[in-house]
Write a structure and sequence with these properties.
Elements (H helix, E strand, L loop, with lengths): L2 E6 L3 H11 L4 E6 L2 H8 L6 E5 L7 H11 L4 E6 L4 H9 L4 E4 L4 H32 L9 H14 L5 E4 L6 H10 L8 E5 L5 H9 E2 L11 E2 L1 H4 L4 E5 L9 H10 L1 E2 L8 E2 L3 E6 L3 H6 L5 H7 L2 E4 L10 H16 L5 E2 L1 H9 L5 H15 L4 E2 L25 H23 L4 H8 L3 H11 L3 H5 L1
Parallel strand pairs: 1-2, 1-3, 3-4, 4-5, 6-13, 6-14, 7-10, 10-13, 15-16
Antiparallel strand pairs: 8-9, 11-12
Bound molecules: adenosine-5'-triphosphate and magnesium ion.
């Protein structure tokens, strides 16, 4: 990189030495003989570095430096001075010079000073840029966590944000897939546009196609107007396809085509419309395993999975729990308008022992509920109540795919049975015949279920 260097001195020998030496290096030189002409030259142009002779007679050097600093807070200012005027140099540092050099000097000395000052400046500028990037990354969506795995996620976010590559985010429910997707969007050059999201699992497949592609008036019953789909809406921005594993098989090749060609056709229309969105997909199941079950197309998988971000469950990064609790207390005490000074050590220990099957979403709800229920200003162990679900019946493994599926379904069904049976018994004042009728099962099977599901005191009571 060429640096622009302005030299202001009336000493011809200095002018010549500097010119001869610096002209052979990566510098673009400008030389002025007087303070006045130097200032004139400086103001309309941008210089990286200025060398001013303190012995100039035509103008007070101090006022030139002040003027230059006012115009450009970043330019490097060096003064050269003879021994006698050293007194005033300390004053000059106060008004913003960066360095001084005593006359006479060896040209190499000047060269290394200039070089080092430029390198330092560059490092400072990069630091500022980096810090700005970091605050932009952390700030808009408010990601919290200092664990090793969260730090790796931040790093990946920084790496991918400004490259328009597809990103696949995987993690159990409530681990923060959407907040990570938002953070990528708001850290990217597309951040002046809104973040678009569509949940492939929440929309019936017939509607999903029209939500994605839009339709032409009359394309199907109910299509009373032309409608833009989200692929078109999100052009220029980021589109988050949530629960991508739920995308119906018949729509998968259509999505693939859009990603390849960056063109769409609204349903019932032959016109091709160009679109340019960046795709971030999320799945709470390991998508690669879905390939084996033939419920996800391999070609689409590879198209989406240019970069993968795996968010580990909260139980695998428990060192983030205190930070997250703190974060949510701050957030919710304001919203709930209730004073909360924090969580006691014993209560925090209980939280660290718990497994958090619903991950950060569960922890967030927990904090919200606990602030409301807490009797004092601090959250104490007796204020704490974890989610009703039985922690022990939750999948133990790292990864949903390793869970004993049959056992998990059995546990889940039993949990539902327990809730309904208890409820029916209460409503019928513990009359088993009436309760069975209410539940739509025979009294005999109700009897069996009670025996199995409430083996302790409850079965005696019923
Ligand atoms: N690292 C984090 N820092 C702060 N808040 C977080 C973090 N991760 C998640 N959250 C919060 O937890 C909640 C759940 O996160 P999010 O909706 O992103 O999870 P998800 O993985 O998309 O869940 P689901 O699979 O259930 O849709 C949100 O309110 C989100 O703001
Ligand atoms: Mg989500």
């Amino acid at each position: 990189m060429i640096s622009r260097f302005l030299i202001i001195t009336d000493e011809l020998s200095i002018q010549k030495t500097i010119t001869d030496f610096f002209n052979t290096k990566n510098y673009h030189l400008a030389i002025e003989k007087s303070g006045k002409s130097g200032l004139k030259r400086f103001l309309p142009f941008h210089f990286d570095i200025i060398l001013i002779d303190l012995d100039l007679s035509d103008i007070k050097t101090e006022s030139i430096i002040k003027d230059i600093r006012k115009q450009d807070p970043d330019v490097i200012i060096i003064v050269m001075t003879s021994e006698g005027s050293i007194q005033s140099v300390s004053e000059l540092f106060k008004i913003g010079i960066n360095h001084y050099i005593l006359k006479p000097f060896a040209i190499e000395e000047l060269f290394y000073s200039v070089n080092n000052l430029l390198i330092n400046k560059k490092i400072q500028e990069e630091n500022i840029k980096l810090k700005k990037n970091l605050t932009e990354i952390y700030h808009p969506a408010g990601l919290v966590g200092e664990s090793k795995s969260m730090k790796e996620i931040y790093e990946k976010i920084i790496q991918v944000a400004n490259h328009d590559v597809s990103v696949l985010i995987q993690g159990e429910s409530g681990t923060g897939k959407e907040i990570v997707a938002r953070t990528i969007h708001f850290s990217s050059h597309r951040n002046d546009k809104p973040f678009y999201a569509i949940n492939c699992g929440a929309i019936p497949s017939e509607l999903l196609e029209s939500e994605m592609f839009g339709h032409k008036k009359g394309a199907f019953t109910g299509a009373i107007n032309d409608r833009k789909g989200i692929f078109e809406e999100a052009s220029g921005s980021t589109l988050f396809l949530d629960e991508i594993n739920e995308m119906p098989l018949n729509l998968q090749p259509k999505l693939l085509r859009v990603l390849q060609e960056k063109k769409i056709k609204r349903i019932g229309d032959n016109k091709e419309i160009e679109t340019d969105f960046r795709i971030i997909a999320a799945s709470s199941r390991n998508l690669k395993h879905e390939l084996d079950h033939n419920s996800f197309r391999e070609d689409l998988f590879y198209r989406l999975n240019v970069i993968t971000i795996n968010i580990p469950p909260l139980r695998k990064r428990k060192d983030d729990i205190p930070l997250l609790i703190d974060h949510f207390i701050k957030k919710y005490k304001k919203l709930i308008k209730k004073e909360s000074k924090g969580i006691s050590k014993e209560a925090l220990e209980k939280c660290l022992e718990y497994n958090w099957p619903g991950n950060i979403r569960e922890l967030e709800n927990f904090v919200q509920r606990t602030i409301v229920l807490a009797r004092g200003k601090y959250i104490l162990p007796e204020d704490i109540m974890f989610d009703a679900r039985d922690d022990k019946t939750e999948p133990e493994g790292e990864n949903v795919d390793k869970v004993d599926y049959k056992k998990a379904v059995k546990n889940a069904l039993e949990r539902i049975d327990r809730i309904y049976i208890q409820d029916a018994l209460k409503k019928t004042n513990y009359n088993k015949i009436k309760a069975a009728k209410l539940l739509g099962i025979s009294p005999r099977s109700l009897h069996y279920k009670i025996k199995n599901l409430f083996p302790d005191q409850l079965s005696k009571k019923y």
